[in-house]
């Protein structure tokens, strides 16, 4: 059992999400940084998609009620157990009564805490991922609060270390490879150029639904109202005020703004590490390249974690 | 039924968007979109199939299903959709209490249309609508076009909270807010029905392709149904 002593900025239960329901208005949700989440599970011997805790920006304090092996991965948050530093992207033993703390997100935005066998949450459409907008999954569909306790099954832990070269790099300047979105060529020529040149900065309006960006204005050639149309995580929407919105794991399933860019699948996990203030560059990717990158990355991480793909 | 012109364009590296070049609502296009989605849903290669008013998104993993195959599956489904005969759907009645506190923007529609509240209610509720798409949030129901006299622009500044069940108008679109959310549509009434209820055996009262009719009810009936 694990007890939340302080929830910090936010902590929710997440797994691999509930794909396949966007036509009903249900986003996939799931761990915003799928790769760090999967690696946290890997380090305690779990299948990669086992429910874990997603900790946003730091400030979280957890108390363990039994001896356990746990793992942390993702944002660099200066984690400590009883005041002693523990390394990011590592697994370690904790004893009943120990307190794990995350200080603040020095690099990145979200850290994952995995327990052997995962944590229990309420399932909706095959996933316990918390989706706050509709109160789905997790613990009563909400973010965790101080004094919440979560059960975790009694599973014999299998501590594993991440082999060399598999640990992702965290950065406060996130580079996302992207291709032209459906309405890219309806944007002004200046905007088309700016998108791939100057970095944007994520504003305070940044959460699991999306990140509002500030930078060069991104504007349509001609003001035009668009019929509501499908969106995906990684779609860069361009509203008339010129400040684009990057849709994330919990992003709306449809929207009525021009879709300027689409982040390639192999880079979607990086969006989970965007916090207010993060710099974001979009790098142009050509369709075929994206497929090659994806297939290489899937082989690479799939050989480490059974069934994992981006 | 004849096929409407369409275009298939990539939507990122893992999706295709089928676009129909129309700016308003078209029954023919909606039927075609739902026929294609129905056919593709029977295939296991697709991760998401999302209908829109004038487009459809087919999302897949290019590492498991080659883009060339995905594209030809789409062309095939589009070809077959030309002969698609819409299935006679049962019409789902949705009770709505129009006006008053439930429809704070009724007056705005009265002014723009020059109609009385009673005329607006009868216009809005006499027609049968097709559910064209769901979402942006769970349960949000995008319906086929409202009668022309009722068309009205969105609020310039959206409300921060729109109650669940609110029925509204945005341009030519009409629809229902499935859960409480922010929103800019002109609100003319509210249904006591929960379009989305995660605790119900079937959480979704409506899905794309359904036929819907609004039935005007009193405030008292609203409370009873609820």
Structural description of this entry:
The complex is a heterodimer of chains A (310) and B (226). Chain A is mainly β and 310 residues long. Chain A folds into 2 domains: 2-150, no CATH class; 173-304, Cyclophilin-like (Cyclophilin), CATH 2.40.100.10. Chain A contains 3 helices and 20 strands. In chain A, the strands form 4 sheets. A 7-stranded mixed barrel of chain A has the order 12-19-16-17-14-13-20. In chain A, strand 16 and strand 17 form a beta hairpin. Chain A is globular and about 65 Å long. The two termini of chain A are 31 Å apart. In chain A, 54% of the residues are buried. With 226 residues, chain B is α+β, with helices and mostly antiparallel strands. Chain B is built from 5 helices and 13 strands. Chain B has helices spanning 27-41, 67-81, 106-113, 117-126, 219-225, and strands at 7-10, 15-19, 48-51, 55-59, 91-98, 129-134, 141-143, 159-162, 166-170, 173-176, 181-183, 186-190, 211-216. In chain B, a hairpin with a 6-residue loop joins strand 6 and strand 7 (141-143). Chain B folds into 2 domains: 7-81, Gyrase A, domain 2 (2-Layer Sandwich); 91-225, Cyclophilin-like (Cyclophilin, Beta Barrel). The chains are: A mainly beta (310), B alpha+beta (226).
